[in-house]
Amino acid sequence: MPVMPNPEVIAHRGYAARYPENTLVALEAALRAGARHVEFDVQLTRDGVPVLQHDAELARTTGHAGRVMDLDLDTVRTLDAGETPRFGTRFTDERIPTLAQVVDLLANRPQATAFVEIKEESLAHFGTVRTVRSVLAVLEPLLARCVPISFSADAVRCARDLDAPAVGWVLRSLDAAHCTQARRLAPAYLFCDHRAALARPGRLWPGPWRWALYEVIGAGLARELAARGADLVETMAVGELLAGLASDES
Description:
This protein has 12 helices and 9 strands. By secondary structure, the chain is an alpha/beta fold.
């Protein structure tokens, strides 16, 4: 029986197992570890600037009460994004980066692809078109290797209508309704929690897309998911997973 090739690996929020998520230091560390794909989350500040932030609420990662979309960029830039509960004072100088800063970082990494998740809280607060347009305007210099993704199918459609070369839809379920909608949307990528894939029998739906499954820890699981049809797996422990997959190949 032929050996299933290893899936490609996406660094989820950068190297988030060892560095503060969605920060420049986490993305740089992921790329140094060998990641060819990175994923990060984008919200808009009150003045409409795309920044890297997963939660609308800032408390978990910065200790600051309030929502990112209620603060202007100058205020957001003062916040400590070093995730003190996880890392103590090790990263106290780390700040929430703007999407423009990340574009500058990736400009010097021509082999890297970025999956840019446009968060639903900003879509709801600012409107789909304004939010997606703001993100794509910043990504424009590198849009050929940046893939807007979202849980919102409307945002995915909007990104495509605004000429994003590739888009991805993040699924909440692998039920029949989502399958039907995926076939209508026909994105280049489908993302889903790996547990949903393991909970159903057989291979993942075939289609014009590539499958990316998160949150994966361990080379054995990654290879099992590849056997189910996963083209990519997403992990916060990118260095460890890349090393494990390399070891499997030796």
